[in-house]
Design goal:
It comes from Dactylosporangium sucinum. The structure is a single chain. By secondary structure, the protein is an alpha+beta fold. It has one domain (5-103): Ribosome hibernation promotion factor-like (Double Stranded RNA Binding Domain, 2-Layer Sandwich). The protein starts with 10 loop residues before the first strand and ends with a helix. A 4-stranded mixed beta sheet has the order 1-2-3-4. Helix 1 (21-34) packs parallel to helix 2 (82-103). Strand 3 (60-68) and strand 4 (71-79) form a beta hairpin. The protein has helices at residues 21-34, 82-103, and strands spanning 11-14, 41-50, 60-68, 71-79. Mean pLDDT is 89; it is low at 1-5.
């Protein structure tokens, strides 16, 4: 049985030490992005990490993996803050979804 996007529980994994509210923010943004497709979404995962080097440029990484009825989308974004990384990630997902719709 395929689950469509309204039923999908976006799984968010946040690196220890990050603000707990970022998980809800990421879930909300990715859910909004996948709401733009009529394709069944089998699963959606997001992972947020921060590298330990304080001098690093754009130390936060947001990654997403979305299974659209067997076609898996991957997106990644790097930023200075978790919220910025999630916003960029949402933009990348929307862009991929738009390209996928245009190509079909």
């Amino acid at each position: 049985m395929s689950r469509t996007h309204p039923e999908v529980d976006v799984r968010v994994q946040v690196q220890p030490g990050m603000e707990p509210r970022i998980a809800g923010y990421a879930r909300e943004k990715v859910t909004a992005a996948i709401g733009h497709t009529g394709t069944p979404v089998l699963y959606a995962r997001v992972r947020l990490d921060r590298i330990g080097n304080p001098a690093a440029s754009r130390p936060v990484t947001a990654r997403a993996e979305i299974d659209l009825n067997g076609h898996v989308l991957h997106a990644e974004a790097h930023a200075d803050t978790p919220y910025e990384a999630v916003d960029l990630l949402q933009d990348r997902l929307l862009s991929q979804l738009e390209r996928r719709t245009t190509v079909r």
